[in-house]
Design brief:
With 318 residues, the chain is an alpha+beta fold. It is built from eight helices and 17 strands. The strands form four sheets. Strands 6-7-8-3-9-10 form a six-stranded mixed beta sheet, sandwiched between helices. The termini are far apart.
Length: 318
């Protein structure tokens, strides 16, 4: 299957209310052709509403949505040529795996020979060739999600929209599918909008991340921008852990343990947890402020130990 650079998506001043409650404040958002943009935030922040406006499942109360230079605000979902994948899979239980994948191609009246070839490509791409004739009820959750992805991608849509697609799966399976989805999106080069509340998922998959809070976009940037240069306290706290001492903020991994005579901060260990690849240590400073450290797994301390700390000047954010 050849790469598809996808469509540029532009939201201009889009707002949405449900039952007199504003769920999306006036929102401007540009999603570049071929990029994966992750909408990240807590439940009720407006990320799924944003996705639904892009999809055409809902219409904005104000503003407009453009695909490239085409105004699609009034265009229904079936005419936007997009693929969608949901948490609930939304597969047809009365059809086999290959029949589910072929469904969108049948709707588009693709000739049978080409249709069979495309379905074969999708089965191979998703590593589910052996499941072609199985009924949906015979599949595991991970297998169902692979079928849902294959069905969404088969018609070669202009954009792919994914709404919390891995939430229902166990942690290990989520990690496996996250890697596979990332490789898939990179190979296709399709414009993708991915909704999640999972920070790790967002950091792993997004070319850029739009962090949302209370119906607004708080910050849009690369994973590195969001993590190391958060625009505000909400973003800083939502993405990982942020320590604050006085007017300075820094991440747990940016703190070093140094001899007391060389330390700019000192304190006593309140808790220490071995987490395999690192130790998570909480320290109460002499100033009574508490900070969290991420230390190498072989660098351990006992509760009550007095230790000295130093933060690299370049790591401090005010």
């Amino acid at each position: 299957m050849t790469a598809n650079r996808g469509v540029q998506i532009l939201m201009q001043g889009c707002t949405k209310r449900y039952k007199n409650q504003v769920v999306l404040e006036p929102t401007d958002l540009r999603i570049e052709s071929g990029e994966t943009l992750v909408l990240l935030g807590p439940s009720g922040c407006g990320k799924t509403t944003t996705l639904r406006l892009i999809a055409g499942l809902d219409a904005p109360d104000a503003g407009r949505v453009l695909f490239n230079d085409e105004d699609v605000t009034a265009l229904p979902i079936e005419k936007r040529h997009i693929g969608m994948v949901f948490q609930s899979y939304a597969l047809f239980p009365n059809m086999s795996v290959q029949e589910n994948i072929a469904y969108g191609l049948l709707v588009r009246k693709m000739p049978e020979t080409e249709r069979k070839k495309r379905v074969g490509e999708m089965l191979e791409m998703m590593h589910i060739e052996s499941l072609a004739d199985r009924q949906i009820t015979q599949l595991s959750g991970g297998q169902k999600q692979r079928v849902a992805l294959a069905r969404a991608i088969a018609p070669r849509p202009r954009a792919l929209l994914l709404d919390e697609p891995l939430t229902a799966l166990d942690a290990r399976l989520r990690e496996t599918l996250r890697v596979d989805i990332n490789a898939l999106l990179r190979s296709l080069g399709i414009t993708t909008v991915y909704v999640t509340h999972d920070q790790s998922e967002a950091m792993a998959l997004g070319d850029r991340i739009a962090v949302m809070e209370k119906g607004r976009i708080s910050q849009v940037g690369t994973p590195q921008d969001i993590y190391f240069r958060p625009a505000n306290r909400f973003v800083a706290d939502f993405i990982g852990t942020m320590n604050t001492v006085g007017q300075n903020s820094f991440r747990p991994e940016e703190v070093r343990v140094v001899p007391l005579a060389q330390a700019s901060m000192r304190g006593r260990v309140v808790s220490s947890f071995f987490l395999g690849d690192h130790n998570r240590v909480q320290v109460r400073l002499d100033s009574a402020e508490e900070v969290v450290l991420k230390l190498p797994s072989k660098q351990s301390f006992a509760v009550g130990d007095l230790i000295g700390l130093e933060v690299d000047a370049g790591s401090l954010a005010c």
